[in-house]
Amino acid sequence: MKRPKLVTHLLPLVRPVPNHFTASAVVIEEGHILLVHHRRIGAWLPPGGHIDDGELPHEAAIREVMEETGVRVMVMTPELPVSIDSDAFFLHQPLCMHGVFALEEGAEVYHIDLAYLCAVDRGEAGDMPLLTVAEEVHDAAWIPIDGLGSLNLAKNVREVVDMALLKLQS
C-alpha cells in the first residue's frame, strides 16, 4: 500500500506567529444559523471564543454560545468510549478545525478554532429560542441560510457552514 505524501504547510515560514486555541458552535435550526456580529472583528460569525484554562474545547463552545446569545446548546457528536483515566481520555469530535489570522491587543496571532456542530437544547419548549446580546457582540441573530450571501461574514464562515450542512444531510 502506497503511503500518502505528507505536505508541510508553508504558512509558518511566511508568517510565524503564536497560536491561540478557540472553540465555536455552528448551530443550525429550521433553515437558520445562529450568528453573532462581533464588535472588534466587524463581521458575522458563529458564537465562540478562547478556551479557558481547565476547560475542554466542546465546553468552551457551549459556554460561549450561552454567554454571547443566551442560547443553551449541546454538541452533536458520536458517542465516545467512557474513560475514568484522567491521563488519557477521548474528546468530542469537532466538525472541523481551521486557522484564522487575528490581531489581539496589537499582537498578531492565529486562532486555531475547533468548530463544533451543535443543536439547541430546547428542553420542553419547541420554539426557536430568543436571543440576548452580550457586550462583546454587536448583535446576535437567527440568519436564514439562504441569506448568508448578503452579510459581511468573517473568514471561513461560509465554508464551515457548508461543511455543517453536508454533515446534517448525511
Features:
170 residues, alpha+beta, Nucleoside Triphosphate Pyrophosphohydrolase, eight-stranded mixed β-sheet, 18% helix
CATH topology: Nucleoside Triphosphate Pyrophosphohydrolase
Secondary-structure element string: HEEEEHEEEEH
Number of separate structural domains? 1
* Shape descriptor: globular
Spell out the CATH superfamily. Nucleoside Triphosphate Pyrophosphohydrolase
The class by helix and strand makeup works out as alpha+beta
Could you explain the architecture of this structure?
- The chain is an alpha+beta fold.
- It has a single domain (38-79, 90-169), classed as Nucleoside Triphosphate Pyrophosphohydrolase (Alpha-Beta Complex).
- The protein contains three helices and eight strands.
- Strands 1, 2, 3, 4, 5, 6, 7 and 8 form an eight-stranded mixed beta sheet that branches.
